[in-house]
Amino acid sequence: MLPLMEEFYTIQGEGAHTGKAAYFIRIGGCDVGCHWCDVKESWNAKLHPATATEKIIENAIKYSDTVVITGGEPLMWNLDFITKNLQSRNIKTHIETSGAYTLSGVWNWICLSPKKNKLPLQEVYDRADELKVIVYNKNDFKFAEDQANKVNGNCTLFLQPEWSNREKMTPLIVDYVMKNPKWKISLQTHKYLNIP
To answer: Which residues form the domain of 86?
Structure first.
């Protein structure tokens, strides 16, 4: 059973897989508590119905060959059962996580989006395929560099403007990436496209 907040088929809007069709499974529960979080309603797991994992899997396989498990903070829950069962049906499994909890599950892609309030565990830094740092203010560039020094050498590095502050921060991110080309820019393209 998992506290399912929502599940939907859409286009991945952020990071390395931007533009790819994927089935999203948003799991309730998060204690990381970012003030700018755009899904604060996910924080309290008790608000979301405990749902049989088999039912979630059956819904997902109808739509896509890629499932993205997100939250909240999905690693608050053990994800071995759901990911092994999706993979046994030839579904690729991606996760979006703060990395603050022990890594469970079998993954084709790990998007690590670290938060200052509760830093990632080393095992998640070591396994991350993608580092996505949300830039809310200028201090976040230093945080991004600190985080980039902790991930593995094959990890793709992204800076993403926080949505409510994008008009101010996007030009600074553009300038930063041009001076530091190891980074790429991620935008929340799904919001520009007006899709979930």
So the answer is: 2-192
